[in-house]
Amino acid sequence: MFSYVLRRIGVGLGLVLLVLTLIFLALHLVPGDPAMLLLSQGDGASATPEAVARVRTQLGLDQPLLTQYWHFLSGALTGDLGESFRNRQPVSEAIGERLPRTLELVGLATLVAVVVGVPWGALAARAGGWFDSVTSVLTSIGIALPVFVFGSILILVFSLKLGALPAGGFAEWGEDPNRHAQILVLPAIALAVGFASTIARMTRSAVLEMLHQDWVRTARSMGLSRRAVFRRYVLRNSLNPVVTTVGIGVGTLLGSTVLVERVFNYPGLSSLLVEAVTARDYPVVQGIVITIAVLFVSINIIVDVLYGVLDPRVRR
Amino acid sequence: MRTTHPLRTRSAARPRLAAVTAVAVAAMTLTACSSGDGGSSASEESLRFGLSAEPVALTTGVWQGSATNFMLTLIHRGLMTLDDQGDLVPGLAESYEMTDDTTYVFTLHEGLTFSDGSPLTAENVKSSLEYYANPDSGSTLIGGLGDISDITVDSDTQVTITLEAPNNAFLEYLAVPTAAIVPEASLNAETPNEVGAGPFMIEDAQAGVGMTLTKFDGFYDADDVALEEIDLSYYADGDARANALVSGDVDMIDYVTWENFDRVGSTDGITLDATPGPFQYVQFNTTEGPFADPLVREAVAYAINRDNALTAAFQSNGEPLEGVVMPDDEALEGVGDELWSYDPDRAEELLAEAGYPDGFEATLLATSQYTFLQDTALSVQQDLQAVGIDITLDAPDWSGRLEKGAAGDYDLAVSGDVGIVTNPSYLLGFVTPPDNFNRSFGYENEEIAAALTEGLRATDDDSRRAAYEEAFDLFATDVPFASIDTRDQAWAYSDDVEGFTNLTGFHTFFSGYTLVNTSLNR
Predict the structure, then answer these.
(1) Are B255 and B264 in contact (CB under 8 A)?
(2) Taking CA atoms, what residue in A is nearest to B241?
(3) Same domain, yes or no, for B47 and B110?
(4) Which of B33, B209, B508 to mutate to test the interface with A (most CBs of A within 10 A)?
(5) Extended beta strands in B323-408, E state
(6) In whole numbers, what is the pLDDT of chain A averaged over residues?
(7) What share of chain B is helix, strand, coil (3-state, %, to 5)?
(8) CB atoms within 10 A of CB B273
(9) Is the overall model pTM greater than 0.95, yes or no?
(10) Of these four, B77, B317, B447, B474, which has the most CB atoms within 10 Å of its CB?
(11) What is the pLDDT of residues B196-230, one digit of tens each?
(12) What is the CATH number of domain A99-310?
């Protein structure tokens, strides 16, 4: 088991290094001058060439690409991700502020999705009939409905019409826990709907497949109650693909909360990434991509290890 | 066919149903804890403001866009400022006197201090203005302050500024937010330009979330400032910003997007305050190809259906622009406002005269990042196709647009801009080098520049009018750019907000100045 985990971590580290290099190259190959952008924010007078050149020097963009890459790489390895071009905030500090917010949102959405999706899928598989049919329809809608459309509907109903919850924004837990929680409700639901639908469908099909196994009939014939067989054997054996779905889903959510963060004006990591790409804020983009890559790889390692725990054959 | 479910039971559903019910009840309880209006708590004097962008790190003297200028209007002041009618009035200067056409004597308010407690004296005025007059500072105020030949400190509260030549835009340049008087320590590119002598000061800032400003009691007019606090929250998305106002999360927002005008404007208890602001235009690459020929540029100016462009990009919230934007000045009434009209036949004649009776192919640079510029480009594309110019659209993101614009990598481009000042001298940048992303690449016209400069130097209304009439006669046929429209620029606020004014024209982005007159009536 130990060597299995080590092997997975080794592959993961290699992947992160590859992502790190690719993102650096991609950013510098894309047209756009951060210095010019900094001095030309929308309407207004254009900066003088001297001013642009001075900002380029300040940001270190006048150095050869290889030198910049070396600074970036050595910085990243020592934990120094540089400073934002835009507000001069250290990137690690910005990520330190934003990542927990996105993780909280993703964590809450995942919790809702799992708590709703797994029982829902299992119930649909067991109940069949109209409940199963309705589940199929609802989960199809849940998966197909774009998150920004659903988010906008939630805002329209709960914020603009009912005035029950904030339309977006952010409040620190330490300063106003009630508002902090209120703000999280709608984005978490918006994010959870598609995910819960996927989990429900995956659980349903996995449970259905298990229910038809010979060993289920054998267990029943040995006198175990339906409930006991379902809980002890069917559900547990059905969870492998569900765990994979949740693992991949969480990883994807980390990078794709951007639409929800945008719609609800939630200052998470994803919205920072989009803003930084738009502004060609290289250090921030690089820092966030590294962070997401490390998280994604870590989640995959955890899922692989969980696989090993759930099914020892995988370790071989 | 019905599927067989070997282990179907009804009782198994109950515990799960209970769990789901518990979650729903928890959510409803949380909702019930809400304040009812969905808004955050705020004191009576605290204005909750939804700002369209997070201001970048403030760099002294540098024009960094509308969100940053808004910040500057709150925490800084120059010698001059704008009142709630948009009129030029003394700011840090209690009064000023013009002893002749080139000499200004400014007398500062007594006992001025910066928000860090240090005294603000005439020495700070001298050092700040000298810094802004130096092109190396990256300042965009050279057009006004470049004429300064001498600054003499007469006393702690009096300073005499002498210009090389008369400049009737000088006082207006002193009211630009980037012309603020700042401490010596801020006069460099590295120190964040956060210490000022404006009505508010930065209390707390949270990157990506917002900023809290509190009233600065050392401000020269502090007794008349009603707001104790401004709580800024950043809402980059136009819909999210409008939602925040409509739902009561904030009291006021800037930059209402045009698709939200109707929704916000028709909401009870909310005022949509719109005024014509920036102008849109077509710029040319004049270094080579058809657009090096003034006849072709003029043809483009006649080919544009301005009403269509306005509808496509701004849902008709704006005005067609058939000339150039001029200041609201009786002496210049009618000057420069009708240079071209929509006349496709005339456009075709001009193209034929230029040797292109069958048209030609060209690339039109826009950007995918700002929908209004892309929509404007689509409308212009249609108009030019109609007169035989086969247009290919190039719409990179804003960063790519800037780079291509600055490098002249286009034939035509659509752009939007404002003058730093309303004085027609803002047009000098369009007819004199250096090149930049939003002027016609390689374009230069010394005659127009000379006439505009003559207008700037004029000391009486008649000679000023004559100079600008000459400038725009040349403008009409040489076409440094082809105007399209002016767009409405809107702020919106709840009825609790009183005293704010959206200043007209280019000054709309300086409307933050009027927050000194603003109060809350909750």
Answers:
(1) no
(2) A265
(3) yes
(4) B209
(5) 360-365, 389-394
(6) 86
(7) 35, 25, 40
(8) 18
(9) no
(10) B77
(11) 999 999 999 988 899 999 999 999 999 999 999 99
(12) 1.10.3720.10
